[in-house]
Specification:
The complex is a heterodimer of chains A (300) and B (327). Chain A has 300 residues and is α/β, with parallel strands linked by helices. In chain A, 32% of the residues lie in helices and 22% in strands. The two termini of chain A are 28 Å apart. Chain B is globular. The chains are: A alpha/beta (300), B alpha/beta (327). At the A-B interface, α3, α4, α5, α6 and β7 of A face α4, α5, α7, β10 and β11 of B. β8 of chain A pairs antiparallel with β11 of chain B, so a sheet runs across the interface.
Chain lengths: 300, 327
Protein backbone atom coordinates (compact mmCIF):
# COMPACT_ATOMS: atom_id res chain seq x y z
CA UNK A 1 0.00 0.00 0.00
CA UNK A 2 1.20 3.47 -0.89
CA UNK A 3 0.79 6.85 0.76
CA UNK A 4 -0.45 9.92 -1.07
CA UNK A 5 -0.33 13.36 0.51
CA UNK A 6 -3.48 15.19 -0.53
CA UNK A 7 -3.57 18.85 -1.47
CA UNK A 8 -3.29 21.22 1.47
CA UNK A 9 -6.79 22.40 2.34
CA UNK A 10 -5.66 25.37 4.44
CA UNK A 11 -4.08 28.77 3.87
CA UNK A 12 -0.52 29.00 5.17
CA UNK A 13 2.08 31.76 4.80
CA UNK A 14 4.28 31.21 1.73
CA UNK A 15 7.38 30.38 3.81
CA UNK A 16 5.48 27.77 5.80
CA UNK A 17 4.09 26.37 2.57
CA UNK A 18 7.56 25.96 1.05
CA UNK A 19 8.96 24.46 4.24
CA UNK A 20 6.14 21.91 4.32
CA UNK A 21 6.96 20.60 0.83
CA UNK A 22 10.72 20.68 1.55
CA UNK A 23 10.04 18.43 4.55
CA UNK A 24 7.93 16.08 2.43
CA UNK A 25 10.96 15.33 0.24
CA UNK A 26 12.32 13.52 3.33
CA UNK A 27 9.09 11.69 4.20
CA UNK A 28 8.11 8.08 3.48
CA UNK A 29 5.30 8.98 1.05
CA UNK A 30 4.96 7.94 -2.58
CA UNK A 31 2.93 10.74 -4.03
CA UNK A 32 2.13 14.38 -3.36
CA UNK A 33 -0.81 16.40 -4.65
CA UNK A 34 0.05 20.07 -4.68
CA UNK A 35 -1.81 23.30 -5.48
CA UNK A 36 -4.93 25.13 -4.34
CA UNK A 37 -8.12 23.22 -3.71
CA UNK A 38 -10.29 25.59 -1.71
CA UNK A 39 -9.96 29.28 -2.65
CA UNK A 40 -8.45 30.91 -5.72
CA UNK A 41 -7.72 34.10 -3.76
CA UNK A 42 -5.04 32.30 -1.76
CA UNK A 43 -3.09 31.16 -4.78
CA UNK A 44 -1.33 34.42 -5.64
CA UNK A 45 0.62 34.21 -2.36
CA UNK A 46 2.45 31.03 -3.28
CA UNK A 47 1.73 30.28 -6.92
CA UNK A 48 5.27 31.18 -8.06
CA UNK A 49 6.69 28.65 -5.59
CA UNK A 50 4.83 25.67 -7.04
CA UNK A 51 7.25 24.83 -9.90
CA UNK A 52 10.24 24.68 -7.53
CA UNK A 53 8.36 22.56 -5.01
CA UNK A 54 7.36 20.16 -7.80
CA UNK A 55 11.00 19.87 -8.97
CA UNK A 56 12.26 19.12 -5.47
CA UNK A 57 9.60 16.48 -4.88
CA UNK A 58 10.23 14.81 -8.22
CA UNK A 59 13.97 14.85 -7.53
CA UNK A 60 13.27 13.13 -4.21
CA UNK A 61 11.47 10.35 -6.09
CA UNK A 62 7.89 11.39 -5.36
CA UNK A 63 5.14 11.28 -7.94
CA UNK A 64 3.45 14.69 -8.15
CA UNK A 65 -0.02 15.76 -9.24
CA UNK A 66 -1.51 19.22 -9.40
CA UNK A 67 -5.00 19.75 -8.01
CA UNK A 68 -7.78 21.81 -9.53
CA UNK A 69 -9.99 24.04 -7.43
CA UNK A 70 -13.01 22.35 -5.88
CA UNK A 71 -15.48 24.93 -7.22
CA UNK A 72 -14.74 26.89 -10.38
CA UNK A 73 -17.00 29.88 -11.04
CA UNK A 74 -15.10 33.07 -11.95
CA UNK A 75 -13.44 33.83 -15.27
CA UNK A 76 -10.08 34.04 -13.50
CA UNK A 77 -10.67 30.60 -11.98
CA UNK A 78 -11.55 29.12 -15.35
CA UNK A 79 -8.29 30.47 -16.76
CA UNK A 80 -6.29 29.07 -13.82
CA UNK A 81 -7.96 25.70 -14.26
CA UNK A 82 -7.29 25.62 -18.00
CA UNK A 83 -3.60 26.39 -17.33
CA UNK A 84 -3.20 23.33 -15.08
CA UNK A 85 -3.03 21.15 -18.16
CA UNK A 86 0.10 23.01 -19.29
CA UNK A 87 2.18 22.45 -16.14
CA UNK A 88 3.66 19.15 -17.29
CA UNK A 89 2.41 17.08 -14.34
CA UNK A 90 -0.69 14.96 -13.84
CA UNK A 91 -3.80 16.98 -13.08
CA UNK A 92 -6.05 15.87 -10.21
CA UNK A 93 -9.55 17.04 -11.06
CA UNK A 94 -11.64 18.11 -8.08
CA UNK A 95 -14.28 19.87 -10.18
CA UNK A 96 -15.36 18.42 -13.49
CA UNK A 97 -14.50 21.75 -15.10
CA UNK A 98 -10.84 20.70 -15.10
CA UNK A 99 -11.68 17.71 -17.28
CA UNK A 100 -13.22 20.01 -19.88
CA UNK A 101 -9.77 21.52 -20.50
CA UNK A 102 -7.78 18.27 -20.74
CA UNK A 103 -7.10 16.86 -24.17
CA UNK A 104 -9.29 13.84 -24.71
CA UNK A 105 -7.30 10.72 -23.91
CA UNK A 106 -4.72 12.39 -21.67
CA UNK A 107 -4.18 10.70 -18.32
CA UNK A 108 -5.48 12.35 -15.19
CA UNK A 109 -6.32 11.65 -11.53
CA UNK A 110 -9.65 12.15 -9.81
CA UNK A 111 -9.71 13.77 -6.38
CA UNK A 112 -12.00 13.13 -3.41
CA UNK A 113 -14.35 16.00 -4.29
CA UNK A 114 -15.56 14.50 -7.56
CA UNK A 115 -18.65 12.36 -7.07
CA UNK A 116 -17.51 8.82 -7.85
CA UNK A 117 -20.19 6.65 -6.30
CA UNK A 118 -20.60 3.74 -8.71
CA UNK A 119 -19.16 1.51 -11.41
CA UNK A 120 -20.80 3.45 -14.25
CA UNK A 121 -19.06 6.65 -13.20
CA UNK A 122 -15.66 5.05 -12.70
CA UNK A 123 -15.97 3.25 -16.04
CA UNK A 124 -16.80 6.51 -17.80
CA UNK A 125 -13.90 8.29 -16.08
CA UNK A 126 -11.55 5.46 -17.12
CA UNK A 127 -12.69 5.85 -20.72
CA UNK A 128 -11.71 9.54 -20.50
CA UNK A 129 -8.22 8.75 -19.18
CA UNK A 130 -8.55 8.50 -15.38
CA UNK A 131 -5.73 6.41 -13.93
CA UNK A 132 -6.19 7.09 -10.22
CA UNK A 133 -9.26 7.88 -8.16
CA UNK A 134 -9.40 9.03 -4.54
CA UNK A 135 -12.93 8.04 -3.53
CA UNK A 136 -15.29 10.51 -1.84
CA UNK A 137 -14.76 10.24 1.94
CA UNK A 138 -18.47 9.65 2.56
CA UNK A 139 -18.48 6.20 0.90
CA UNK A 140 -19.12 3.15 3.11
CA UNK A 141 -16.81 0.14 2.96
CA UNK A 142 -19.26 -1.86 0.80
CA UNK A 143 -19.08 0.76 -1.95
CA UNK A 144 -15.31 0.99 -1.60
CA UNK A 145 -15.02 -2.78 -2.11
CA UNK A 146 -17.27 -2.78 -5.19
CA UNK A 147 -15.49 0.21 -6.73
CA UNK A 148 -11.99 -1.12 -5.99
CA UNK A 149 -12.91 -4.33 -7.79
CA UNK A 150 -14.27 -2.44 -10.80
CA UNK A 151 -11.20 -0.20 -10.80
CA UNK A 152 -8.79 -3.14 -10.90
CA UNK A 153 -10.41 -4.35 -14.11
CA UNK A 154 -10.18 -0.82 -15.55
CA UNK A 155 -6.53 -0.30 -14.61
CA UNK A 156 -7.37 2.44 -12.14
CA UNK A 157 -5.63 2.79 -8.77
CA UNK A 158 -7.98 3.47 -5.85
CA UNK A 159 -7.18 5.71 -2.93
CA UNK A 160 -9.16 6.18 0.26
CA UNK A 161 -9.11 9.15 2.63
CA UNK A 162 -6.79 7.96 5.41
CA UNK A 163 -6.02 10.86 7.69
CA UNK A 164 -7.13 14.38 8.43
CA UNK A 165 -10.12 16.61 8.77
CA UNK A 166 -12.79 15.48 6.31
CA UNK A 167 -13.92 17.87 3.58
CA UNK A 168 -17.69 17.98 4.14
CA UNK A 169 -18.89 20.91 2.03
CA UNK A 170 -17.88 23.74 -0.27
CA UNK A 171 -19.85 26.95 -0.73
CA UNK A 172 -20.01 30.20 -2.66
CA UNK A 173 -20.00 31.96 0.68
CA UNK A 174 -16.86 32.49 2.79
CA UNK A 175 -17.63 31.63 6.41
CA UNK A 176 -14.37 33.00 7.74
CA UNK A 177 -15.16 36.37 6.13
CA UNK A 178 -18.75 36.21 7.44
CA UNK A 179 -17.51 35.43 10.96
CA UNK A 180 -15.33 38.54 10.85
CA UNK A 181 -18.18 40.67 9.47
CA UNK A 182 -16.50 41.02 6.08
CA UNK A 183 -17.59 40.24 2.55
CA UNK A 184 -15.84 37.54 0.56
CA UNK A 185 -14.28 40.10 -1.76
CA UNK A 186 -12.87 41.96 1.25
CA UNK A 187 -12.03 38.90 3.36
CA UNK A 188 -8.57 40.16 4.37
CA UNK A 189 -7.58 36.51 4.41
CA UNK A 190 -9.11 35.78 7.78
CA UNK A 191 -8.64 32.05 7.18
CA UNK A 192 -4.86 32.44 7.50
CA UNK A 193 -5.29 32.76 11.27
CA UNK A 194 -6.45 29.16 11.46
CA UNK A 195 -3.82 26.93 9.86
CA UNK A 196 -5.84 23.77 10.57
CA UNK A 197 -9.31 25.31 10.32
CA UNK A 198 -11.41 27.02 12.99
CA UNK A 199 -13.34 24.76 15.37
CA UNK A 200 -17.13 25.06 15.15
CA UNK A 201 -18.90 23.90 18.31
CA UNK A 202 -22.52 23.34 19.19
CA UNK A 203 -24.05 25.81 21.65
CA UNK A 204 -23.36 23.19 24.34
CA UNK A 205 -19.67 23.30 23.48
CA UNK A 206 -19.49 19.98 21.67
CA UNK A 207 -16.98 20.00 18.80
CA UNK A 208 -18.76 19.41 15.50
CA UNK A 209 -17.21 21.02 12.41
CA UNK A 210 -14.39 23.29 11.33
CA UNK A 211 -14.56 26.27 9.00
CA UNK A 212 -11.91 26.95 6.42
CA UNK A 213 -12.95 29.86 4.22
CA UNK A 214 -15.55 28.61 1.75
CA UNK A 215 -15.00 25.04 2.95
CA UNK A 216 -16.56 23.20 5.87
CA UNK A 217 -14.62 20.32 7.41
CA UNK A 218 -15.27 17.80 10.16
CA UNK A 219 -14.08 18.62 13.64
CA UNK A 220 -12.68 15.11 13.88
CA UNK A 221 -9.60 13.88 12.11
CA UNK A 222 -10.20 10.79 10.02
CA UNK A 223 -7.84 7.97 11.01
CA UNK A 224 -7.85 4.72 9.09
CA UNK A 225 -5.99 2.68 11.71
CA UNK A 226 -8.76 0.10 12.19
CA UNK A 227 -9.60 -0.40 8.50
CA UNK A 228 -6.17 -0.79 6.91
CA UNK A 229 -6.42 -4.60 6.57
CA UNK A 230 -9.97 -4.32 5.26
CA UNK A 231 -8.90 -1.78 2.64
CA UNK A 232 -5.82 -3.73 1.66
CA UNK A 233 -7.86 -6.87 1.02
CA UNK A 234 -10.42 -4.80 -0.91
CA UNK A 235 -7.65 -3.85 -3.33
CA UNK A 236 -7.24 -0.23 -2.26
CA UNK A 237 -3.74 0.71 -3.34
CA UNK A 238 -3.10 3.96 -1.48
CA UNK A 239 -4.14 5.93 1.57
CA UNK A 240 -4.51 9.66 1.38
CA UNK A 241 -3.09 11.76 4.21
CA UNK A 242 -4.37 15.32 4.39
CA UNK A 243 -1.81 17.97 5.42
CA UNK A 244 -1.87 19.53 8.87
CA UNK A 245 0.33 22.30 10.17
CA UNK A 246 2.23 20.38 12.86
CA UNK A 247 4.16 17.13 12.90
CA UNK A 248 3.06 16.00 9.47
CA UNK A 249 6.23 14.13 8.48
CA UNK A 250 6.16 12.15 11.75
CA UNK A 251 2.53 11.39 11.01
CA UNK A 252 3.41 10.07 7.55
CA UNK A 253 6.05 7.87 9.19
CA UNK A 254 3.49 6.44 11.62
CA UNK A 255 1.11 5.52 8.80
CA UNK A 256 4.03 3.97 6.89
CA UNK A 257 4.89 1.88 9.96
CA UNK A 258 1.28 0.78 10.34
CA UNK A 259 1.14 -0.30 6.67
CA UNK A 260 4.47 -2.12 7.10
CA UNK A 261 3.10 -3.77 10.26
CA UNK A 262 5.77 -2.36 12.56
CA UNK A 263 2.88 -0.63 14.33
CA UNK A 264 -0.14 -2.73 15.17
CA UNK A 265 -3.82 -1.82 15.12
CA UNK A 266 -4.56 0.62 17.91
CA UNK A 267 -0.94 1.74 18.27
CA UNK A 268 -1.26 4.08 15.30
CA UNK A 269 -4.37 5.78 16.70
CA UNK A 270 -2.71 6.12 20.12
CA UNK A 271 0.37 7.66 18.54
CA UNK A 272 -1.71 10.04 16.40
CA UNK A 273 -3.61 11.16 19.51
CA UNK A 274 -0.49 11.53 21.62
CA UNK A 275 1.06 14.11 19.38
CA UNK A 276 -2.21 15.80 18.40
CA UNK A 277 -3.52 16.53 21.89
CA UNK A 278 -7.18 17.49 21.99
CA UNK A 279 -7.94 16.02 18.59
CA UNK A 280 -10.88 13.66 18.04
CA UNK A 281 -10.60 10.78 15.60
CA UNK A 282 -13.27 9.30 13.36
CA UNK A 283 -13.71 6.48 10.85
CA UNK A 284 -17.50 6.28 10.76
CA UNK A 285 -17.99 6.96 7.06
CA UNK A 286 -16.28 3.65 6.27
CA UNK A 287 -17.62 1.31 8.93
CA UNK A 288 -19.85 3.26 11.33
CA UNK A 289 -23.45 4.43 11.46
CA UNK A 290 -22.43 8.00 10.61
CA UNK A 291 -19.26 9.84 9.61
CA UNK A 292 -18.45 11.19 13.05
CA UNK A 293 -18.24 7.76 14.70
CA UNK A 294 -14.96 6.29 15.86
CA UNK A 295 -14.46 2.55 16.16
CA UNK A 296 -11.40 2.77 18.40
CA UNK A 297 -11.38 2.66 22.16
CA UNK A 298 -9.25 5.72 22.75
CA UNK A 299 -10.07 9.31 21.86
CA UNK A 300 -9.28 12.73 23.27
CA UNK B 1 -40.83 34.12 -24.72
CA UNK B 2 -42.54 33.84 -21.37
CA UNK B 3 -40.29 32.38 -18.68
CA UNK B 4 -41.11 28.76 -17.85
CA UNK B 5 -42.35 28.06 -14.32
CA UNK B 6 -41.07 24.69 -13.08
CA UNK B 7 -43.04 23.47 -10.08
CA UNK B 8 -42.51 20.73 -7.54
CA UNK B 9 -44.96 17.89 -7.03
CA UNK B 10 -44.45 15.39 -4.24
CA UNK B 11 -47.80 13.69 -4.85
CA UNK B 12 -50.21 13.14 -7.76
CA UNK B 13 -52.61 15.59 -6.07
CA UNK B 14 -49.88 18.27 -5.99
CA UNK B 15 -49.11 17.62 -9.66
CA UNK B 16 -52.74 18.16 -10.63
CA UNK B 17 -52.96 21.25 -8.43
CA UNK B 18 -49.79 22.71 -9.97
CA UNK B 19 -50.99 22.10 -13.52
CA UNK B 20 -54.41 23.59 -12.80
CA UNK B 21 -52.75 26.62 -11.17
CA UNK B 22 -50.84 27.33 -14.36
CA UNK B 23 -47.51 25.54 -14.07
CA UNK B 24 -45.80 25.22 -17.44
CA UNK B 25 -43.79 22.29 -16.12
CA UNK B 26 -43.91 20.01 -13.10
CA UNK B 27 -41.01 18.00 -11.72
CA UNK B 28 -41.37 14.91 -9.58
CA UNK B 29 -39.64 11.67 -8.66
CA UNK B 30 -40.25 7.98 -8.11
CA UNK B 31 -40.93 6.81 -4.57
CA UNK B 32 -37.47 5.47 -3.83
CA UNK B 33 -33.87 6.53 -3.27
CA UNK B 34 -33.38 7.59 -6.90
CA UNK B 35 -34.55 11.11 -6.19
CA UNK B 36 -33.24 13.80 -3.87
CA UNK B 37 -36.53 14.20 -1.92
CA UNK B 38 -36.83 10.63 -0.72
CA UNK B 39 -39.24 11.30 2.14
CA UNK B 40 -41.80 8.86 3.57
CA UNK B 41 -45.21 9.15 1.91
CA UNK B 42 -43.88 11.26 -0.93
CA UNK B 43 -43.35 10.77 -4.66
CA UNK B 44 -44.86 8.62 -7.39
CA UNK B 45 -45.15 4.93 -8.12
CA UNK B 46 -44.94 3.93 -11.79
CA UNK B 47 -48.66 4.03 -12.56
CA UNK B 48 -49.10 7.35 -10.74
CA UNK B 49 -46.29 8.74 -12.84
CA UNK B 50 -47.90 7.54 -16.07
CA UNK B 51 -51.24 9.06 -15.05
CA UNK B 52 -49.57 12.27 -13.91
CA UNK B 53 -47.77 12.71 -17.22
CA UNK B 54 -51.01 12.05 -19.13
CA UNK B 55 -52.87 14.59 -16.97
CA UNK B 56 -50.19 17.24 -17.54
CA UNK B 57 -49.89 16.57 -21.27
CA UNK B 58 -53.64 16.80 -21.74
CA UNK B 59 -53.42 20.35 -20.33
CA UNK B 60 -50.33 21.42 -22.23
CA UNK B 61 -47.90 21.06 -19.31
CA UNK B 62 -44.65 19.09 -19.20
CA UNK B 63 -43.35 16.64 -16.61
CA UNK B 64 -39.70 16.24 -15.64
CA UNK B 65 -38.57 13.24 -13.60
CA UNK B 66 -35.76 13.87 -11.12
CA UNK B 67 -33.40 10.89 -10.84
CA UNK B 68 -30.76 12.95 -9.19
CA UNK B 69 -29.12 10.98 -6.42
CA UNK B 70 -25.84 9.18 -7.07
CA UNK B 71 -26.44 5.46 -7.75
CA UNK B 72 -25.05 3.15 -5.09
CA UNK B 73 -22.20 0.89 -6.18
CA UNK B 74 -23.54 -2.55 -6.94
CA UNK B 75 -27.13 -1.30 -7.25
CA UNK B 76 -27.04 0.85 -10.38
CA UNK B 77 -29.83 -1.22 -11.92
CA UNK B 78 -32.36 0.56 -9.65
CA UNK B 79 -31.36 3.91 -11.17
CA UNK B 80 -31.16 2.53 -14.72
CA UNK B 81 -34.68 1.17 -14.34
CA UNK B 82 -35.90 4.57 -13.14
CA UNK B 83 -34.58 6.23 -16.32
CA UNK B 84 -36.19 3.59 -18.52
CA UNK B 85 -39.48 3.86 -16.64
CA UNK B 86 -39.49 7.65 -16.87
CA UNK B 87 -39.20 7.33 -20.63
CA UNK B 88 -41.94 4.67 -20.72
CA UNK B 89 -44.21 6.94 -18.64
CA UNK B 90 -43.85 9.63 -21.29
CA UNK B 91 -41.76 12.07 -19.24
CA UNK B 92 -40.56 15.12 -21.17
CA UNK B 93 -37.10 14.91 -19.61
CA UNK B 94 -35.10 13.35 -16.80
CA UNK B 95 -33.05 15.42 -14.37
CA UNK B 96 -29.74 13.67 -13.68
CA UNK B 97 -26.57 14.42 -11.72
CA UNK B 98 -24.36 11.31 -11.81
CA UNK B 99 -21.76 10.96 -14.57
CA UNK B 100 -22.34 7.22 -14.92
CA UNK B 101 -26.09 7.67 -15.14
CA UNK B 102 -25.76 10.50 -17.69
CA UNK B 103 -23.56 8.22 -19.77
CA UNK B 104 -26.06 5.37 -19.43
CA UNK B 105 -29.04 7.56 -20.36
CA UNK B 106 -27.33 9.14 -23.35
CA UNK B 107 -26.33 5.73 -24.75
CA UNK B 108 -29.49 3.75 -23.94
CA UNK B 109 -32.20 6.41 -24.09
CA UNK B 110 -30.93 8.90 -26.67
CA UNK B 111 -34.44 10.15 -27.41
CA UNK B 112 -35.12 11.06 -23.78
CA UNK B 113 -34.27 14.69 -23.08
CA UNK B 114 -31.65 15.15 -20.35
CA UNK B 115 -31.41 18.01 -17.87
CA UNK B 116 -28.47 18.44 -15.52
CA UNK B 117 -29.55 18.50 -11.87
CA UNK B 118 -28.42 21.19 -9.46
CA UNK B 119 -26.79 18.24 -7.66
CA UNK B 120 -24.07 18.25 -10.34
CA UNK B 121 -23.09 21.80 -9.27
CA UNK B 122 -22.10 22.92 -12.77
CA UNK B 123 -21.10 26.50 -11.98
CA UNK B 124 -19.48 27.90 -15.14
CA UNK B 125 -20.02 27.96 -18.90
CA UNK B 126 -17.10 25.65 -19.72
CA UNK B 127 -18.35 22.75 -17.63
CA UNK B 128 -21.93 23.34 -18.78
CA UNK B 129 -20.80 23.11 -22.40
CA UNK B 130 -18.81 20.02 -21.50
CA UNK B 131 -21.95 18.32 -20.16
CA UNK B 132 -23.85 19.44 -23.26
CA UNK B 133 -21.19 18.17 -25.66
CA UNK B 134 -20.47 14.92 -23.83
CA UNK B 135 -23.91 13.77 -22.70
CA UNK B 136 -26.27 15.81 -24.85
CA UNK B 137 -27.62 17.71 -21.83
CA UNK B 138 -30.17 20.29 -22.99
CA UNK B 139 -30.74 22.27 -19.84
CA UNK B 140 -28.70 22.92 -16.69
CA UNK B 141 -30.13 23.75 -13.28
CA UNK B 142 -27.61 26.22 -11.86
CA UNK B 143 -26.19 25.80 -8.35
CA UNK B 144 -27.17 28.39 -5.79
CA UNK B 145 -23.68 29.88 -5.54
CA UNK B 146 -23.97 32.35 -8.44
CA UNK B 147 -24.86 36.05 -8.61
CA UNK B 148 -27.22 37.41 -11.30
CA UNK B 149 -24.34 38.99 -13.32
CA UNK B 150 -22.51 35.64 -13.20
CA UNK B 151 -25.64 33.88 -14.47
CA UNK B 152 -25.84 36.40 -17.31
CA UNK B 153 -22.19 35.73 -18.17
CA UNK B 154 -22.85 31.98 -18.18
CA UNK B 155 -25.85 32.35 -20.49
CA UNK B 156 -23.81 34.47 -22.88
CA UNK B 157 -21.44 31.52 -23.36
CA UNK B 158 -23.54 28.44 -22.61
CA UNK B 159 -24.89 26.40 -25.50
CA UNK B 160 -27.92 25.16 -23.54
CA UNK B 161 -30.83 26.48 -21.50
CA UNK B 162 -30.47 27.35 -17.83
CA UNK B 163 -32.96 26.99 -14.99
CA UNK B 164 -32.56 28.71 -11.62
CA UNK B 165 -34.21 28.34 -8.22
CA UNK B 166 -36.41 31.28 -7.26
CA UNK B 167 -38.39 30.13 -4.24
CA UNK B 168 -38.29 27.73 -1.31
CA UNK B 169 -35.58 25.96 0.64
CA UNK B 170 -32.07 27.24 0.18
CA UNK B 171 -28.92 25.14 0.16
CA UNK B 172 -26.03 27.20 1.49
CA UNK B 173 -23.43 24.71 0.32
CA UNK B 174 -22.83 23.76 -3.32
CA UNK B 175 -25.42 21.06 -3.95
CA UNK B 176 -24.23 17.52 -4.52
CA UNK B 177 -20.96 18.42 -2.80
CA UNK B 178 -22.13 18.28 0.81
CA UNK B 179 -21.67 15.45 3.34
CA UNK B 180 -22.65 17.37 6.48
CA UNK B 181 -25.80 15.31 6.85
CA UNK B 182 -24.10 11.92 6.55
CA UNK B 183 -21.36 13.04 8.92
CA UNK B 184 -23.98 13.62 11.64
CA UNK B 185 -26.62 11.02 10.71
CA UNK B 186 -25.25 8.56 8.17
CA UNK B 187 -27.82 9.67 5.59
CA UNK B 188 -26.95 12.13 2.84
CA UNK B 189 -28.52 13.92 -0.12
CA UNK B 190 -26.10 12.27 -2.55
CA UNK B 191 -26.57 8.69 -1.40
CA UNK B 192 -30.02 8.61 0.19
CA UNK B 193 -31.86 11.62 -1.17
CA UNK B 194 -32.30 13.18 2.27
CA UNK B 195 -30.65 15.98 4.25
CA UNK B 196 -30.93 16.40 8.02
CA UNK B 197 -33.53 13.57 8.06
CA UNK B 198 -36.51 13.68 10.42
CA UNK B 199 -35.62 10.16 11.59
CA UNK B 200 -32.59 11.66 13.37
CA UNK B 201 -34.30 14.72 14.85
CA UNK B 202 -35.04 14.95 18.57
CA UNK B 203 -36.86 17.77 20.36
CA UNK B 204 -36.47 18.10 24.07
CA UNK B 205 -38.08 20.67 26.35
CA UNK B 206 -36.65 21.36 29.75
CA UNK B 207 -37.53 24.27 32.06
CA UNK B 208 -38.97 26.35 29.25
CA UNK B 209 -36.06 25.77 26.88
CA UNK B 210 -36.59 23.78 23.69
CA UNK B 211 -33.61 21.93 22.20
CA UNK B 212 -33.63 20.63 18.62
CA UNK B 213 -30.98 18.01 17.89
CA UNK B 214 -29.87 16.19 14.79
CA UNK B 215 -27.94 12.96 15.27
CA UNK B 216 -27.39 14.04 18.86
CA UNK B 217 -25.84 17.40 17.92
CA UNK B 218 -27.62 20.44 19.31
CA UNK B 219 -28.66 22.55 16.31
CA UNK B 220 -31.10 25.06 17.87
CA UNK B 221 -31.94 26.08 21.44
CA UNK B 222 -34.87 28.47 21.89
CA UNK B 223 -37.04 29.70 24.74
CA UNK B 224 -40.60 28.45 24.90
CA UNK B 225 -42.82 30.55 22.65
CA UNK B 226 -40.03 31.44 20.25
CA UNK B 227 -40.24 29.95 16.76
CA UNK B 228 -38.34 26.66 16.67
CA UNK B 229 -36.98 26.08 13.17
CA UNK B 230 -36.40 22.57 11.85
CA UNK B 231 -32.81 21.54 12.72
CA UNK B 232 -31.28 21.74 9.26
CA UNK B 233 -27.54 21.43 9.79
CA UNK B 234 -26.22 24.38 7.84
CA UNK B 235 -28.81 26.73 9.38
CA UNK B 236 -28.04 25.85 12.98
CA UNK B 237 -26.70 28.01 15.75
CA UNK B 238 -23.05 27.31 16.56
CA UNK B 239 -19.99 28.98 18.06
CA UNK B 240 -16.50 29.55 16.66
CA UNK B 241 -13.75 31.61 18.22
CA UNK B 242 -15.42 34.38 20.19
CA UNK B 243 -18.60 34.38 18.11
CA UNK B 244 -21.84 32.47 18.34
CA UNK B 245 -24.83 32.49 16.02
CA UNK B 246 -25.94 31.21 12.65
CA UNK B 247 -22.38 30.93 11.35
CA UNK B 248 -23.30 29.41 7.99
CA UNK B 249 -26.79 30.75 7.30
CA UNK B 250 -29.81 32.02 9.20
CA UNK B 251 -32.96 29.89 9.11
CA UNK B 252 -34.09 31.63 5.92
CA UNK B 253 -35.65 30.51 2.69
CA UNK B 254 -35.09 31.76 -0.83
CA UNK B 255 -37.35 34.28 -2.48
CA UNK B 256 -36.08 35.79 -5.72
CA UNK B 257 -39.46 36.98 -7.06
CA UNK B 258 -38.22 40.58 -7.33
CA UNK B 259 -35.28 39.44 -9.38
CA UNK B 260 -37.42 37.80 -12.08
CA UNK B 261 -36.97 40.69 -14.56
CA UNK B 262 -33.20 40.63 -13.99
CA UNK B 263 -33.09 36.86 -14.38
CA UNK B 264 -34.96 37.18 -17.66
CA UNK B 265 -32.46 39.79 -18.87
CA UNK B 266 -29.70 37.40 -17.76
CA UNK B 267 -31.03 34.90 -20.29
CA UNK B 268 -32.53 32.36 -17.88
CA UNK B 269 -35.10 30.05 -19.52
CA UNK B 270 -36.87 28.56 -16.52
CA UNK B 271 -37.64 29.45 -12.91
CA UNK B 272 -37.68 26.61 -10.45
CA UNK B 273 -39.63 26.38 -7.23
CA UNK B 274 -38.28 24.13 -4.48
CA UNK B 275 -40.59 22.02 -2.32
CA UNK B 276 -41.69 18.57 -3.38
CA UNK B 277 -42.37 17.99 0.32
CA UNK B 278 -44.94 20.82 0.35
CA UNK B 279 -48.74 20.54 0.33
CA UNK B 280 -50.79 20.86 -2.85
CA UNK B 281 -52.38 24.10 -1.64
CA UNK B 282 -48.96 25.64 -1.01
CA UNK B 283 -47.74 24.53 -4.43
CA UNK B 284 -50.87 25.90 -6.14
CA UNK B 285 -50.52 29.26 -4.44
CA UNK B 286 -46.83 29.65 -5.26
CA UNK B 287 -47.47 28.61 -8.85
CA UNK B 288 -50.31 31.10 -9.28
CA UNK B 289 -48.13 33.90 -7.96
CA UNK B 290 -45.12 33.11 -10.10
CA UNK B 291 -47.27 32.53 -13.17
CA UNK B 292 -48.86 35.95 -12.62
CA UNK B 293 -45.40 37.47 -12.33
CA UNK B 294 -43.99 36.03 -15.56
CA UNK B 295 -47.21 36.78 -17.43
CA UNK B 296 -47.05 40.40 -16.22
CA UNK B 297 -43.44 40.60 -17.29
CA UNK B 298 -44.26 39.21 -20.72
CA UNK B 299 -47.14 41.71 -21.13
CA UNK B 300 -44.90 44.54 -19.88
CA UNK B 301 -47.21 45.17 -16.95
CA UNK B 302 -45.79 46.07 -13.52
CA UNK B 303 -44.84 43.06 -11.39
CA UNK B 304 -47.27 42.15 -8.60
CA UNK B 305 -45.67 43.29 -5.30
CA UNK B 306 -44.49 41.09 -2.42
CA UNK B 307 -47.03 38.42 -3.17
CA UNK B 308 -45.30 35.47 -1.53
CA UNK B 309 -44.30 36.79 1.87
CA UNK B 310 -47.28 35.12 3.56
CA UNK B 311 -46.22 31.72 2.25
CA UNK B 312 -42.90 31.70 4.01
CA UNK B 313 -44.50 30.61 7.31
CA UNK B 314 -43.00 33.47 9.27
CA UNK B 315 -39.52 32.60 8.06
CA UNK B 316 -37.10 35.25 6.94
CA UNK B 317 -36.43 35.46 3.20
CA UNK B 318 -33.23 35.98 1.30
CA UNK B 319 -32.22 36.41 -2.31
CA UNK B 320 -29.20 34.23 -1.50
CA UNK B 321 -26.20 34.28 -3.79
CA UNK B 322 -28.06 36.19 -6.51
CA UNK B 323 -26.86 39.33 -4.72
CA UNK B 324 -23.10 39.21 -4.51
CA UNK B 325 -22.94 40.61 -0.96
CA UNK B 326 -24.46 37.34 0.35
CA UNK B 327 -21.08 35.67 0.01
Amino acid sequence: MELTVGSNQFFWPAETWSGFYDDLTRSPVDRVVIGELVCSKRLSFYQDRIPEAISKLVEAGKEVALTSLALVTLKRERKLTAELAEMGVTVEINDLTALAYLLEGSDFSVGPLVNVYNEGTITWLASRGARRVCLPPELPIGSVETLAKAATDLGIAIEVWGHGRLPLAISGRCYHARLHGRSKDNCQFACEEDPDGLDVLTVEGRPFMAMNGVQTLSDSYACIDHQIELLRSAGVSALRLSPQSKGFVQLCTLYRQRIDRTLSEGELANAVLSFNPGVHLSDGFLTGACGAEWSGTSNS
Amino acid sequence: MVMEIVCPAGTPAALRAAVKAGAHTVYCGFNDETNARNFPGLNFNRSEMRDGVAFAHARGAKVLVAINTFPRAGDEAIWHRAVGDAEACGADAVILADLGLLDHASRNHPGLRRHLSVQAAAANADVINFYAGTFGVRRVVLPRVLSVPEIAAINAEAEVETEVFVFGGLCVMAEGRCSLSSYATGLSPNMNGVCSPASHVEYNEDQGVLDARLGGYLIHRVDRGEPAPYPTLCKGCFSAGEKAGHLFEDPVSLNAERLIPQLQKAGVTALKIEGRQRSKSYVAQVVRNFRAAVDALEARRPMPEGMLARLSEGQAMTTGAYKKTWR
